[in-house]
Write a structure and sequence with these properties.
The protein is mainly alpha-helical. It is built from nine helices and four strands.
């Protein structure tokens, strides 16, 4: 994998490590976080099933310990959300990494925020999928309907239903809902 780093990030220090738990980690240390396009190319280049976590830069022993923990935790989140492989920076996943640091509390958070949408039913899964698409499309019902291959009215109906079941505005509580949906997906 080092050849990939040399090609995509020339001059950036890297090390290929194997963790005590068998996790293979490509650790790169850029001076600035890679942009989304470069991160995508990096994830695609390492191949299926390979995960790349990029931590922030830090110095000294304490910095090394902090970024090692960030990279490991980010890898575990990435592994849960994208088992087929990919790349992510700690900054992109920091909230989810933090929430998942204590799995019992994270699970409880997701259950409280999602309420009836945390049920293990097909209906609840459809609504979670619809909410993830809606939020992922910047709150656009039209774009979400395209992603989900559904009619816009079906998406609108599901969003109204989710709002009624939750008892809160999905747009006003977007941050909590997105975090809870991510935690729920990562823990499933």
């Amino acid at each position: 994998m080092g050849e990939i780093v040399r090609r995509l990030l020339p001059g950036v220090p890297w090390v290929d490590l194997e963790g005590y738990d068998g996790t293979q980690m490509l650790w790169i240390s850029p001076t600035a976080p890679p942009d989304h396009e470069l991160l995508h190319r990096l994830g695609a280049s390492v191949g299926p099933g390979k995960l790349v976590a990029v931590s922030d830069v830090a110095t000294g022993r304490e910095g090394f310990v902090a970024v090692a923990r960030e990279a490991r935790d980010t890898l575990h989140v990435l592994e849960r959300l994208h088992p087929a492989g990919g790349a992510v920076t700690f900054r992109q996943a920091a909230l989810l990494v933090t929430l998942l640091a204590e799995p019992d509390r994270a699970r409880r958070f997701a259950e409280v925020i999602l309420g009836p949408l945390s049920a293990r039913t097909d209906d609840a899964e459809r609504m979670r999928t619809t909410l993830r698409a809606y939020f992922g499309c910047g709150g656009s019902k039209i774009a979400a309907s395209s992603v989900l291959h559904l009619h816009e009215k079906t998406v609108a109906y599901r969003l109204r239903r989710a709002t009624n079941l939750l008892g809160v505005s999905i747009d006003e509580h977007r941050l909590d809902l997105e975090a809870a949906l991510s935690v729920f997906a990562a823990m499933s």
